[in-house]
Amino acid sequence: MTTFSYITFLATLTIFISTSTVRSCPASDRAALLAFKAALHEPYLGIFNSWTGTDCCHNWYGVSCDMETKRVADINLRGESEDPIFQKAGRSGYMTGSISPSVCKLERLSSLTISDWKGISGPIPACITSLPFLRIIDLIGNRISGEIPADIGRLERMTVLNIADNLVTGRIPRSLTNLSSLMHLDLRNNRIWGPLPLDFGRLRMLSRALLSRNYISGTIPDSISKIYRLADLDLSLNKLSGEIPASLGKMAVLATLNLDSNKLSGKIPDSLFNSAIGNLNLSKNSFQGYLPDVFGPRSYFTVLDLSYNNFRGPIPKSLSQASFIGHMDLSHNRLCGRIPAGPPFDHLEASSFAYNACLCGKPLGACQ
Questions:
Q1: According to the UniProt entry, where is the signal peptide (predicted)?
Q2: What does the pLDDT read at residue 23?
Q3: Which pLDDT does position 154 carry in this prediction?
Q4: pTM value?
Q5: CA separation for the pair 345, 362 (Å, rounded)
Q6: Which CATH number, 1.10.3720.10, 3.90.76.10, 3.80.10.10, 3.20.20.70, labels domain 66-360?
Q7: What are the b/e assignments for 287-310, b being 16+ CB within 10 Å?
């Protein structure tokens, strides 16, 4: 080989090595992923079998990298998936272990999805709040315990926080209301206790707030009505008390309001019955008094459930003026009098009116 050829060869090799280095994930990201993997045990599908070689950006199952920086941007591991690896095995996923704090070394991480593995336990690493680019945390369907990191509000880019169906305890951190970009909050079916932050309404971009099946107490903050994008609010199966803020009925896009199985009391605000809410469940509380006779053409309910309360008096005749009522349940109250004729009453079953003081007429027995 001539001197010129040798120099050309070295130059080409240098360019190749440099290009390969740029196209590969950094060694620090690869080491962080391997430490993350070491804390988990997946015995059936072999999803980590592809985590070999030096380039974690290439064909590592569930890992994707930023095209420009070549840093790990997404971890997407779902225990319930239509991926061929699940179809071939004929089963959903099962994984044990914990989420290693090594994940916090992935400095450009944008989304962390480790969902529906059923057996992953331990806490959410507190250091996760140091990841400035993190937008999505989805840990639904595991056995994660401990508390939501106190300084979760540092994650300014966060749009999705989903830790439903786990064993998370403690209060909702006050800093959570700093998540000004948050659009989807799902804390269902955990062991979270204490009150909702009074300034919950600071989450102005929120469209879904799902917090059912916890031990949340106190009153419903009036500030929630300031979340003008909120379409779905589920606070059912908690320990909330006090009255419903009338301002909830004035929200422009709130379509679903589930407050059943709490300790709410007082009168139901008239505004709820002439609002954008189409799915209203207030059952199994301690509401009392007369049902407001305020229904009209703006009243459109696919579901209206007021059962298991202490309502008394007659069924409001104005219910006949509602534009639509699909399912209505007034059972287990103290209502009395004749059930109005015509829609929506002509398509409802007797169970919708059962266990009241003295209701009569179709679909119950004739009035005396």
A1: 1-24
A2: 61
A3: 97
A4: 0.91
A5: 8
A6: 3.80.10.10
A7: beeebbebbeeebbbebbbbbbbe
pLDDT in tens, 94-108: 999 999 999 999 999
Q: What is the rounded average pLDDT for all residues in the chain?
A: 92
Average pLDDT over residues 39-44: 96
3-state secondary structure the chain: CCHHHHHHHHHHHHHHHHHHHHHCCCHHHHHHHHHHHHCEECCCCCHHHHCCCCCCCCCCCCEEECCCCCCEEEEEEECCCCCHHHHHHCCCCCEEEECCHHHHHCCCCCEEEEECCEEEEEECCHHHHHCCCCCEEECCCCEEECECCCCHHHCCCCCEEECCCCCCEECCCHHHHHCCCCCEEECCCCEEEEECCCCHHHCCCCCEEECCCCEEEECCCHHHHHCCCCCEEECCCCEEEECCCHHHHHCCCCCEEECCCCEEEECCCHHHHHCCCCEEECCCCEEEEECCCCCCCCCEEEEEECCCCEEEECCCHHHHHCCEEEEEECCCCEEEEECCCCCCHHHCCHHHCCCCCEEECCCCCCCC
- Rounded CA gap, 185 and 176, in Å? 10
Residue 2 has pLDDT above 60, yes or no: no
- 3-state SS string over 143-155? EEECECCCCHHHC
Q: Which of 364, 359, 329 is nearest to 344 (CA)?
A: 329
- Average pLDDT of 169-186? 98
What is the pLDDT at residue 122? 98
Can you tell me the distance from the alpha carbon of 10 to that of 54, in angstroms, rounded to the nearest whole number?
23
Asked whether the beta carbons of 332 and 306 are under 8 A apart, the reply is no
Give the whole-angstrom CA distance, residue 112 versus residue 335.
Answer: 51
- The count of residues in the chain is 368
Alpha carbon 60 to its chain centroid, in Å, reads 28
Residue ranges covered by each domain of the chain: 66-360
Q: Tell me the per-residue pLDDT of 233-259, one tens digit each, with 9 for 90 and over.
A: 999 999 999 999 999 999 999 999 999
The C-alpha atoms of residue 282 and residue 306 are separated, in whole angstroms, by 5
pLDDT > 90 fraction of the chain, expressed in percent and rounded: 85
**Pairing outcome for strands 95-98 and 40-41:** antiparallel
